[in-house]
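Summary for the lay section of the report: proteins are chains of building blocks that fold into shapes. Here we show the chain for DUF3293 domain-containing protein and then a coded description of the shape we predicted for it.
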Amino acid sequence: MDRALLDAFRATDYLVCIDAAEWADIRIDQPLPSSLQALVGARCWGFITAWNPRAETTRAPADNLAAQRELLGALRAWPEAVIHPAIGIGRTGWSEPSLFVIGPDIATLDALARRHEQLAYIHGHANSIAHLRVLE
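The coded shape description reads as follows.
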């Protein structure tokens, strides 16, 4: 991954919808916001999307939606998974619907991210800092 793309990942706001009125902002290399720590407890978590494989924005919206539905279905197959709607918003105005998931481990998240040709995703365990997991 080149430096510009890595910088774009690091500058992105990773927003999680906690409920109808509250959003939490995950920042790479920072602890989870306290509102998310309360939800996560001692479990693993990830912030992941199926939009725009390989960080290319030329994919048709219908294809992005279909891939995101597939990702959501795969996450729902985990009985212990807790899933919240989320969105990544870049500093240059782009955004990608995403999912904040509690429960699946890093191997599972890696497999899902690779299946959807994602270059990276955000993950952590319990209230530890948020890590950028680069898959290249």
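Put simply, here is one thing we learned. Residues 52 and 59 are 6 Å apart (CA to CA).
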